[in-house]
Amino acid sequence: MVSLKCPVCGGEVQVDDNALPGEIVEHECGAQLEVFNDHGRLSLRLAEQVGEDWGE
Amino acid sequence: MILGVSYDLLRWEERNLIEEAKKIGNKVYPLFTKDMTFLTSEDAWYQDVDAVIQRNTSHSRAVATSMLLESMNFRVYNDSLSLVRCENKIQTTFLLRSRGIPVPKTAIAFSRDKAMEMASKLGYPVVIKPVEGSWGRMVARAQDEDTLRSLIEYQEFTNLQYKTIYYIQEYVNKPNRDIRIFVIGDEAPVGIYRVNEKNWKTNTALGAIARPLKIDEELRDLALKVKEIIGGFFLGIDVFEDPERGYLIGEVNGVPEYKNTVRVNQFNVSGFLLNKLNEVIKK
Ligand SMILES: [Zn+2]
Fold it and tell me: Which end of chain B is more exposed for a tag (fewer CB within 10 A), N or C?
């Protein structure tokens, strides 16, 4: 596991070592976060809102 | 096979595909759309990719990345043309209809008055749907003229791309379920019933429950015919059971979700898809 920082509350978020960009993580503060690759390092940002054109 | 998986959200399906591909010895490049860029003066990265599976949740991203990759000579499943045919309900419905596939009675109108006129012709209740959209969003049933007029007004105030095109359909008096059948390559190996006791909408995104489906010959033939017309390699086809007319094709999905199908059928959709793809690539 890697420990990342929640961009909303600043708290700690445990993410799987082999997490891939685009993975969604729920944080206890209520934020929905998205894993992304920040210049070679895993990081978290606020997940994208469901779009008008989303869905199977 | 060296496989690219183009995606913008890592759902259960994408994760499962990547795992299953590795399990059978394929090399996988996860292609996260938000990290991808394309520049005319640069050569394509990942020159060695044999095939790309298109798994973007956003339709515009799916179509755009399929188009871009195709234009760089990659083999992409599903290709952009099939995706467009699936996504635009006008095209799906009228293309299938013109090739003799049974579909619900559907009217397209380009003005409010004509939309109302067509609804009377179809007979209430009617269903109004956005030309593009999924998960049952903005799909509404109107019991009478008053309701339909309000729904049309709501549609006009959205930011939908086709907000002044009215897609109005008869309400099919189906049982409290519909059918989702999957086409993978040249087969239709698995499907589910989507049962909703409480809501006439049977999207699993709206709480419908998946039940295993036994695929009869008629349904299989119909699904494969649809695939022949729409194109593509991996489709999720929605079918209504009409008490009098039998099977009617509702929608076709070009990036189908299948988590519930795998769960209730104990059927490895990713594995089946990857094996089929490996066969095609070898040819
Ligand atoms: Zn937080």
Answer: C
Each residue's pLDDT tens digit, B64-111:
999 999 999 999 999 999 999 999 999 999 999 999 999 999 999 999
| CATH architecture of the domain with range B2-85 | 3-Layer(aba) Sandwich (3.40)
Nearest CA in chain B to A33: B9
What global pTM score does this model have? 0.94
| Size of chain B in residues | 283
Residue in B10, B35, B57 closest to A23 by CB:
B10
CB contact under 8 A, B133 and A24: no
Domains of chain A and any CATH numbers: 2-46 (2.20.28)
CA A1 / ligand 1 centre spacing (Å)? 17
